[in-house]
Amino acid sequence: MPGQPAGHHGAAPFPDADLMYIVDLLAPPERDTYFRIRQFLQSSVRQASIEYWNREEFPFGLLADLGKHGLGALQLDGSSTLFKGLMYVELARADVSLSALAGIHNELILGMVSELGSGEQKARWLPGLKSFRHLGAFALTEPDHGSDIAGGLETSARLEGGEWVINGAKRWIGAATIADFALVWARDVADGEIKGFIVETDRPGYTATKISNKIGLRIMQNADIVLADVRIPADNLLPGATSFSRTNELLRDSRAWVGWQGAGIQLAAFDVARAYALSRRQFGRELAGFQLVQQQLADMLGNASASLALMAQLARIQQEGKLEMVQAAMAKATVTRLARATVAMGRSLLGGNGISSDYEMGKLFGDAEILYTYEGSYEINSLIVGRAVTGKSAFH
Ligand SMILES: Cc1cc2nc3c(=O)[nH]c(=O)nc-3n(C[C@H](O)[C@H](O)[C@H](O)COP(=O)(O)OP(=O)(O)OC[C@H]3O[C@@H](n4cnc5c(N)ncnc54)[C@H](O)[C@@H]3O)c2cc1C
Fold it and tell me: What is its EC number (predicted)?
């Protein structure tokens, strides 16, 4: 679809930066929706997000617009896996924080409530979640346990007089200061199992403090949560989340979502780098005419295309129900490794202007670091692949 805007530099992506025609794999109705939503994200979100990112401020108006375009309901509206993935690509291409919000919302919040929740929980929360009128936060990581959370989780849940009493602390939890509830993972003192609980954020004893001064994902409101004797009704336990194994299946899918984000951020970096190379002149001519600059553009597009193609094949096996943790981990690790390299090339291609978020590339450069580390760090995802191919675990 030539002629689409490419961020604030004005030039069209060439040709959509989708050299391998991945978008053509969508069925025609989904393809039309894809172009419509991409147009909206490029024109209404991409440029607008920069100031919010600079101020570490959450764009509530933009979130409502995302809801109007159906992006709060991707998980439950019958979209194909490829369409959902390409929505995450285009969201990340416009703003990585909003793609993080939409991804966590769909994969982890809608996914968990709809698959592991009770009828009553679904009736109470799903309608508002689907339109982004309600938000949930996914609260797994703790101050002392990140990579080793499955074995190390310390937050406790005690059933007492028909109520659960939750105690503990969580760190880095996205949207925790603005969400209606947090999906809190806590260890039941009775049987030692990790279980999922809906904790409304206005319960006494729940406090969330925003983490400021992040180098990336600055629009996402990440927070430290303290849970001090928070009492919730017994039926706030997700009935399907009474051990960590079901949860793990959804965590596998959310790793795949980060792979899509990694592809999207590379398309964004390519858009900006290409436009800049064509507009900036040094030594009396455009940067785009220099061989070393073209090499960087070719490498960036090659990385982005390899990422998109890998993710498209992952979508196929996911749609067929064949996705396993090893493939999700390999894709997440590989794409985010490529994304980090791609934004670094883009950063250098813009020279000094690559340092400033005003030119978008500085924003992408910071955001790529988060993709590399969350949903299982690069190293941990690599070790999951290593374990699968050797039969030996290097991280237990
Ligand atoms: C911006 C942001 C948003 C986030 N959002 C959420 C959220 O919404 N909800 C949520 O629950 N969590 C969230 N997280 C947490 C994220 O998932 C963790 O940061 C991540 O899992 C890594 O844990 P950690 O930071 O505690 O690092 P650590 O586990 O302390 O790791 C530190 C370093 O050591 C390495 N390492 C650890 N163990 C090993 C090993 N055995 N072998 C080799 N290397 C190892 C890691 O790869 C890493 O490089 C977010 C994080 C960030 C930064």
Answer: 1.3.3.6
Same domain assignment for residues 264 and 231: no
- 4 lies in a domain? no
- Tell me which residue range forms the domain holding 32: 22-130
| 125 and 161 part of one domain | no
Residue 255 has pLDDT above 80, yes or no: yes
CB 270 within 8 A of CB 301: yes
Number of domains in the chain: 3
Is residue 166 assigned to a domain?
Answer: yes
Same structural domain, 107 and 169: no
What's the rounded Cα separation, in Å, for the pair 140 and 371? 17
Q: Assess whether 142 and 274 both reside in one domain.
A: no
The response to whether residue 221 sits with its C-beta less than 6 Å from ligand 1 reads no
How far is residue 38 CA from its own chain's centroid?
A: 17
For residue 282, the SS3 value is strand
What is the rounded (10 degree) CA torsion for 234, 237, 195, 385? 180
Q: For residue 21, report the distance from its CA to the centre of ligand 1, in Å.
A: 34
14 in any annotated domain:
no
pLDDT at 13: 53
Pair 318, 383 in one domain: yes
- How high is the pLDDT of residue 243? 82
Ligand 1 site, residue 374, Cβ cutoff 6 A: yes
Name which residue sits closest to atom 3 of ligand 1, judged by CA.
172
Q: In 3D, which of 27, 62, 97 has the Cα closest to residue 371?
A: 97
Q: Identify whether the C-beta of residue 176 lies closer than 8 Å to the C-beta of residue 138.
A: no
Taking the centre of ligand 1 as the mean of its atom positions, its distance from the CA of residue 383, in whole angstroms, is 14
pTM, full prediction: 0.96
- Residue 15: per-residue pLDDT: 58
Domain holding 30: CATH number? 1.10.540.10
> Looking up tokens 């500085």, which residue turns up?
362
Find out whether 349 and 277 touch, Cβ atoms under 8 Å: yes
- Tell which phi-psi region holds residue 28, choosing left (phi > 0), alpha (psi between -120 and 50) or beta: alpha
Backbone angles phi, psi at 172, to 5 degrees: 75, 15
Whether 6 is covered by a domain: the verdict is no
User: Is the model's pLDDT at 9 over the cut of 80?
Assistant: no
Contact of 108 with 184, CB cutoff 8 Å = no
Checking if the pLDDT of 141 tops 60, the result is yes
Here the CATH number for the domain that contains residue 237 is: 2.40.110.10
Q: Are 286 and 354 part of one and the same domain? A: yes
- Cα(372) to ligand 1 centroid in Å equals 10
In sequence order, the β-bridge partners of residue 170 are 225
